[in-house]
Structure to design on (171 residues):
């Protein structure tokens, strides 16, 4: 079942994750896309528990109009790599912070793809989820002036916030 967070327009970005337990990380990607005005869908698709669903999702994504896939997983995180193996859409992998090894297992599982099947690997956890959404938007913005403006405005706000609060702990 899809997590009920998808935007109403035809989704350009597909967010998938290995488990419901990944949502507390991956919702940061969803929130960032929503703030930037990017249409997306979000769904649990597990490489290990629902492998057939993963194959059908990855095979059908481009035909449904998805342009970038963000895949988050933790532990033995095969989801981004297997998804990338079944589609030529860009796949951005988000290593979810695992309890046992703090996400180092997730990071190494996702980043060490064999030559020939790339996954754009983000940072572990929340920062990675946010950056996956920003990078997906930047990819879409190559052919979408509205999204380019949204990214430029985001950067400007970010810079202004830092410059307006130069002393740590004082707002
Ligand atoms: C991975 O196993 C998921 O991506 C998740 O990060 C991890 C643990 O899943 P649960 O046992 O919490 O469902 O496949």
């Amino acid at each position: 079942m899809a997590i009920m967070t998808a935007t109403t327009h035809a989704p350009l970005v597909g967010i998938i994750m290995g488990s419901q337990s990944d949502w507390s990380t991956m919702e940061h990607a969803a929130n960032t896309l929503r703030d930037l005005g990017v249409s997306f869908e979000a769904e649990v698709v597990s490489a290990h528990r629902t492998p057939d669903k993963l194959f059908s999702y990855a095979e059908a994504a481009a035909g449904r109009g998805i342009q970038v896939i963000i895949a988050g997983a933790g532990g033995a995180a095969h989801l981004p790599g297997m998804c990338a193996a079944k589609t030529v859409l860009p796949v951005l992998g988000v290593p979810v912070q695992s309890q046992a090894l703090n996400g180092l297992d997730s990071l190494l599982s996702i980043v060490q793809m064999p030559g020939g099947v790339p996954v754009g690997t983000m940072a572990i956890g929340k920062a990675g989820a946010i950056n996956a959404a920003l990078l997906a938007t930047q990819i879409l913005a190559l052919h979408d002036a509205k999204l380019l403006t949204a990214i430029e405005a985001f950067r400007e706000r970010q810079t202004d916030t830092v410059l307006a609060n130069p002393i740590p702990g004082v707002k």
Notes: The chain has a mean pLDDT of 95.
